[in-house]
Amino acid sequence: MASALVAEVARRLARRARWRPFEYAFWLAALASVFLLPGRHLILTEIAWLALFALSLDLILGYAGIISLGHAAFFGLGSYLAALLAKHGVINEPVLALVVSGVCAAVLGFATSFLVLRGSDLTRLMVTLGVALIMREIANQIPDVTGGADGLQGVVVAPILGMFHFDIFGHVSYAYCLIVLFVLFLLARRVIYSPFGLSLRAVKGNALRASSIGISVNARLVAIYTFAAFYAGVAGALLAQTTAFASLDVFSFERSADLLLVLIIGGTGYLYGGLIGAVIFKLMQDWIANLTPQYWQFWIGLVLVLIVLIGRDRIGLWTGGVRAPAERLARRLAPGAAPVPVPPGEGH
């Protein structure tokens, strides 16, 4: 009986983690954009690193319930480290510098995670915001290293793998950011659909109940917070490498606030929420800024207010007539695939 139960659980977990037609379509569209939209590679590069940044916040907010207003601390640290490593020639290979920047951000995340575990959500908001403000002030007080308010200038990023030079049109930058995003997304997906990821959902749902069945709550929160900090550091490093510049703006409160807006648009607790939210947010920002350069923030704010007032569930009902035929068509194109139910709490 026990072995049959274990086999059934394993089968359900495997079904849960199976790739869906939408996911294949999403990444094929992203790949196609490399070849079909060469004139939009600059903004697509911004979307790619913003999507990774949003994914890093969703890992702690959507799956562990940790609210943060200072996620820019890790983003900024990764950005400055990548810029400094390139400027002084400490690490000339961008990919290696990317990993080093992410690891250093993860170390900062691990060091500050114990502060975040204390107190309520309001306490966590203030602590995370305080960490970002402290990091910004440190960068501002050492202008000989960081450039201070003027930013870190004179950064020259070496070719990727010694072969691919960054160009002013963003062709190499976009392909580079997209590959990094895809690889780290696969890793995040693996983590979320693992037993560790399922235990995170239990902790978010009821930490006391999770602790009572033997789940080490604090250890898991520290682990996912450190992991998310690594992702944020890599996203910041991508920004520095693709722009050859780093400034105090990477630590700003607005950076963290924009990230929350991206997740409000795309949804939390759903790996594609941050990615879709980044696409919509950046394209909407670019389009509205071209229409009304002075009032684009008002219109974005209005869209967010409408999302909150109408409700994501009601919007999902309105779009159900479109989604249902699309799902039937996808099943017809893949007749060998069994229908996979969407887990509760995902996809919205």
Q: What is the tally of beta strands? A: 0
Low-confidence stretches: 318-323, 334-348
Q: Residue share in helices?
A: over 70%
Could you tell me the mean pLDDT? 84
* Biggest sheet descriptor: none
How would you characterize this protein structure?
By secondary structure, this protein is mainly alpha-helical. The chain has 16 helices and no strands. The protein has helices spanning 2-16, 21-36, 41-61, 72-87, 94-116, 121-141, 143-146, 171-192, 195-205, 207-212, 217-243, 253-266, 271-291, 296-310, 312-318, 320-333. α2 (21-36) packs antiparallel against α8 (171-192), α3 (41-61) packs antiparallel against α11 (217-243) and α3 packs across α13 (271-291). The chain starts with a helix and ends in a 15-residue tail after the last helix. Mean pLDDT is 84; it is low at 318-323 and 334-348.
Keywords summarizing the entry:
about 75% helix, mainly alpha, about 350 residues, 16 helices, disordered C terminus
Structural topology:
Layout: H1 2-16, H2 21-36, H3 41-61, H4 72-87, H5 94-116, H6 121-141, H7 143-146, H8 171-192, H9 195-205, H10 207-212, H11 217-243, H12 253-266, H13 271-291, H14 296-310, H15 312-318, H16 320-333
Helix pairs in contact: 2-8, 3-8, 3-11, 3-12, 3-13, 4-5, 4-6, 4-11, 5-11, 12-13, 13-14
Give a quick precis of the structure:
The protein has 348 residues and is an all-alpha fold.
